Amino acid sequence: MSDSDTLYCIKLHDVSDNPEMVVEFLSALEFQFSSWVDHIEKNACHTLYFETETAAAAAKKQLEPLLPQWREYDIDISTLEFFSIKREDWSEVWKKYFKVMRMSERLVVKPSWLDYDPAPGQLILEIDPGMSFGTGQHATTAFCLRMLDKLANREGASGTESFLDVGCGSGILSIAAAKLGFAPVTAFDYDPDSVRIAGENFEINGLSKNAIGLSVGDVTKYEASGYDVVAANILAHILRANCQRIVSYVRSGGYLMLAGILREEFDETVAAFAATGVELSESASEKEWTGGLFKKA
Hints:
The chain is α/β, with parallel strands linked by helices. The protein has two domains: 6-92, ACT domain (Alpha-Beta Plaits); 138-296, Rossmann fold. Helices cover 28% and strands 32% of the residues. It has helices at 20-28, 53-63, 66-70, 139-152, 172-180, 192-204, 236-241, 243-248, 266-274; strands spanning 6-14, 33-38, 43-50, 77-86, 101-102, 107-110, 123-126, 163-166, 185-189, 212-216, 227-233, 250-262, 278-286, 289-296. The strands form three sheets. It has a seven-stranded mixed β-sheet with strand order 10-9-8-11-12-14-13, sandwiched between helices. Strands 2-3-1-4 form a four-stranded antiparallel β-sheet. α4 runs parallel beside α5 (172-180). The longest helix is centred in the middle third of the chain and has 14 residues, at 139-152. The chain is globular and about 55 Å long.
């Protein structure tokens, strides 16, 4: 069922001592959501928004088995509620959470409804996230953007290096790569809605349909090789389970960016990837998350 005037929602009632942890998990799961927290009463509500009833039902099915696993991180979700609201009640409210953000020396993220006069040399990434993840606000996305700028500007960079975006979400990393001069740029995501929104964001940024190869794909099955730079911004257990396949996307001497990794899972993830022939060259932590830049031998 689809209704252009309706948004389908899932509300998580959170009685954890640290509701901010749920915010981090939901962001990494690529959901569009809002949160309300009452620190005095120690309860919170996290509301997820979806374009279709089918997408909301699929997310509910995805979340239900995760809730017992989250208890290992002292996360306690008391109930999970499904409901719908009129789009007009929400469509303007969420915009207040997005602002112009300078992500690196050259990259600036801007929503379309805000004006910004770029300084010389700055590159504007115009992102309207819609129902997909990836505005640069999350620590994992910010890490990848900084690493992309650094790799594009490093000594010895050819200026025509290829880039693969594994789990592209809103398409923000692919847009950054294309504007930084990477070519060809390829992106995929398992979620058709994310792929649709990424395509729309490519057009907003003046990128032709041929500038970025975009498709629906699953990291457990996707076949590729020979890329100079690969970014995989997905959860750590998925990264580890598919480490050999992900590393196979990278050419010898190429670079791999991994993000979406909780700080306490980073060492285990580094060990799994090191066993496949890549070496950690740089890492950075922000909040609960750590990202790593690897080089393939």
